[in-house]
């Protein structure tokens, strides 16, 4: 589309302006456009939005049903033998072994899973990025120390260590704090290794040399020139780490080392159902479904985000 | 090659040494020593008795001295005695390891078969109904925590089968292979499948991606152009180099599992290393915890070295530095 000037010459400025409106879409815009075309990813995003809404409005479930999250309905919620009651109009998902409403508890459990998933993932990726960039760009002694540390952390039997740390009442014992801490301590290394590898090749680029010759210091180069270039990788990694973290939290709670009772938590509900689920399938089924739907949604979205951000990447 | 091996082994030993120090530190930072003496002495024990128990176990000595004794014993192949079980840690581990080994090896065979074969089939018929179905099912299992699948299998194949008169699998527990091979098999089928189905999902995704990448290479086109049969192209030319990432993943997974499949063992009541570890951690049985941790880290370290060597053997383009 050439815009003619009075002299019949193409107006360069106008051409540039016109092409800018066509091609001026950044990496993120392009990625978003690609992601929007991915039906499975968009459905998953919708599911995740619903899950987030459930977490935010969990008290609404309690007030609509009139059942508190830790309220025990020993008369209406248990059979005369003291067993959980199946799904009914009063208790849509049935009741648990203490006569509590499973629907309300599953809704509240969403909060713990999402909170741990998001906070622990951000912490992990944050620490991993800082150490990975530092190791990759600074090199030398810093790199040696961090790389060794990565090797060591990656060869630790992390579940064993996590259980040990929780059981010695580290950081005040079982609770959200220790869970998030344990996850970050054992997961940052994998993130740092990926970032470090990326940075090792990025730092050889001409634009880094250009920045250096313009007088940019290491901080500026790491923050302004390198960080944006590993951002796509970090976002993909984070999206795929969230479901892993959610499962890890559920495992700890399942082993009795997560959030202490009576807080509603999916892993813990599944663990509590172990003694009675054979007669009361709903006690196992609904928390499990909540857990699987959440991790599945994040995994599908993560796959979609990866394809969108890096169309050449393999679908692993 | 020898120098490389030496360096890796040294690194591995260093990691294991750091691991033992970390476990020791954690135990002594926590309430471990106090709890152990109190529990062994009994609830009504006088403070003097508790003190005596502490001295017997050597828990009254400074941590550094205890650590030194531990290292000294370790170098003689002795991991010490369990505080509670009245057995040496070596005996405890010797009893638990075959359970974990049976679980891990059986599951590994299953997940390799399912994962790699399904992955190859998916990659070869990319975009087909089978491919979409397989990748969807894989993503489903990939998102499933192992304890959820384990309990689900128990519900269907143990509980529902049993109340309908089909006693195929025990709900809990383990029968040693030497005692009764059939019962051994029955006690492991459900744990095998719980572990294998979930892990196979990763292998399907990995194999598929790797196959697709290799299938785009020039030498595959050359092989086809030479007129080789498609099966030969796929299995001899493509799969062989596509397996490299699969092999390294396999080594690491198997190594990790040999240190104890904690969740699976707990769900199915299998007295393997993971189950033993969880019990010892809850009891503050430090010698056993240390024993399991050393074994588990050793398994991971050895697996990593084996993977690196296998890498070089499988793919001549990769040279060891």
Task: Please characterize this protein's 3D structure.
- The complex is a heterodimer of chains A (about 325) and B (about 325).
- Residues about 1-10 of chain A have low confidence and may be disordered.
- Chain A is mainly α.
- Chain A has helices at about 10-25, 25-35, 40-55, 60-65, 100-140, 140-155, 160-165, 175-200, 205-215, 220-255, 265-275, 280-310.
- Chain A has twelve helices and no strands.
- In chain A, about 70% of the residues lie in helices and about 0% in strands.
- Chain B is mainly α and about 325 residues long.
- In chain B, about 75% of the residues lie in helices and about 0% in strands.
- In chain B, helix 5 crosses helix 8, helix 5 runs antiparallel to helix 10 and helix 10 packs antiparallel against helix 13 (about 285-315).
- At the A-B interface, helix 7, helix 10, helix 11 and helix 12 of A face helix 1, helix 6, helix 7, helix 8 and helix 11 of B.
List the helices and strands and how they pair.
The complex is a heterodimer of chains A (316) and B (321).
Chain A: H1 12-23, H2 27-37, H3 39-56, H4 58-65, H5 102-138, H6 140-154, H7 158-167, H8 176-202, H9 206-213, H10 218-254, H11 266-273, H12 281-309
Chain B: H1 2-29, H2 32-41, H3 47-57, H4 63-75, H5 89-124, H6 129-142, H7 146-163, H8 181-215, H9 218-225, H10 230-258, H11 262-267, H12 273-283, H13 286-314
Fill in the keyword field for this structure.
heterodimer, A: 316 residues, mainly alpha, 12 helices, B: 321 residues, 13 helices
């Amino acid at each position: 589309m050439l815009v003619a000037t009075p002299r019949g010459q193409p107006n360069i400025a106008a051409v540039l302006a016109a092409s800018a409106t066509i091609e001026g879409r950044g990496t993120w815009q392009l990625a978003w456009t690609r992601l929007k075309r991915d039906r499975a990813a968009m459905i998953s995003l919708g599911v995740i939005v619903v899950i987030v809404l459930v977490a935010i409005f969990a008290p609404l479930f309690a007030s609509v049903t009139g059942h508190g999250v830790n309220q025990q309905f020993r008369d209406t919620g248990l059979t005369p033998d003291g067993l959980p009651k199946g799904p009914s109009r009063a208790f849509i998902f049935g009741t648990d072994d203490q006569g509590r409403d499973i629907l309300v508890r599953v809704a509240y459990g969403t909060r713990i899973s999402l909170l741990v998933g998001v906070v622990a993932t951000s912490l992990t990726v944050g620490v991993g990025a800082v150490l990975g960039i530092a190791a990759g760009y600074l090199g030398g002694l810093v790199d040696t120390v961090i790389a060794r540390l990565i090797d060591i952390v990656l060869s630790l039997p992390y579940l064993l260590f996590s259980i040990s740390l929780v059981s010695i009442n580290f950081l005040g014992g079982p609770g959200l704090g220790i869970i998030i801490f344990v996850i970050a301590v054992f997961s940052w290394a994998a993130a740092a290794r990926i970032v470090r590898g990326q940075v090792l090749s990025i730092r050889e680029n001409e634009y880094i040399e250009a920045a250096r010759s313009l007088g940019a210091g290491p901080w500026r180069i790491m923050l302004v020139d390198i960080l944006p270039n590993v951002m796509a990788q970090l976002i993909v990694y984070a999206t795929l780490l969230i479901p892993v973290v959610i499962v890890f939290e559920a495992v700890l709670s399942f082993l009795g080392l997560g959030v202490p009772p009576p807080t509603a938590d999916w892993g813990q509900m599944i663990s509590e159902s172990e003694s009675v689920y054979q007669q009361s399938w709903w006690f196992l089924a609904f928390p499990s479904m909540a857990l699987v739907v959440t991790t599945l949604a994040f995994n599908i979205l993560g796959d979609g985000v990866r394809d969108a951000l890096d169309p050449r990447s393999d679908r692993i | 090659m020898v120098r490389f091996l030496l360096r890796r082994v040294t690194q591995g030993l260093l990691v294991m040494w750091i691991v033992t120090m970390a476990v020791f530190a954690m135990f002594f930072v926590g309430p471990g020593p106090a709890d152990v003496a109190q529990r062994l002495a009994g609830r009504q024990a006088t403070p003097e008795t508790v003190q005596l128990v502490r001295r017997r176990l050597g828990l009254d000595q400074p941590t550094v001295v205890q650590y030194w004794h531990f290292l000294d014993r370790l170098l003689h192949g002795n991991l010490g005695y369990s505080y509670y079980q009245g057995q040496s840690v070596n005996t405890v581990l010797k009893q638990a390891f075959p359970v974990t080994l049976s679980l891990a090896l059986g599951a590994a065979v299953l997940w390799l078969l399912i994962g790699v074969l399904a992955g190859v089939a998916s990659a070869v018929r990319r975009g087909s109904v089978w491919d979409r179905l397989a990748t969807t099912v894989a993503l489903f299992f990939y998102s499933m925590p192992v304890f959820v699948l384990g309990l689900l299998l128990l519900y269907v194949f143990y509980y529902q089968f049993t109340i309908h008169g089909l006693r195929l699998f025990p709900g809990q527990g383990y029968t040693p292979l030497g005692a009764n091979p059939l019962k051994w098999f029955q006690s492991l089928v459900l744990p095998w499948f719980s572990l294998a189905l979930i892990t196979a999902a990763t292998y399907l995704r990995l194999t598929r991606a790797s196959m697709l990448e290799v299938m785009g290479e020039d030498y595959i086109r050359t092989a086809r152009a030479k007129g080789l049969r498609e099966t030969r192209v796929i299995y001899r030319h493509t799969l062989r180099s596509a397996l490299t990432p699969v092999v390294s993943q396999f080594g690491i997974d198997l190594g990790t599992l040999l240190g104890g499949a904690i969740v699976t063992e707990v769900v199915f009541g299998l007295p393997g290393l993971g189950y033993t570890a969880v019990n010892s951690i809850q009891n503050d049985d430090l010698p056993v915890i240390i024993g399991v941790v050393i074994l588990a880290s050793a398994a991971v370290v050895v697996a990593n070295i084996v993977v690196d060597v296998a890498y070089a053997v499988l793919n001549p383009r990769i040279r060891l530095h």
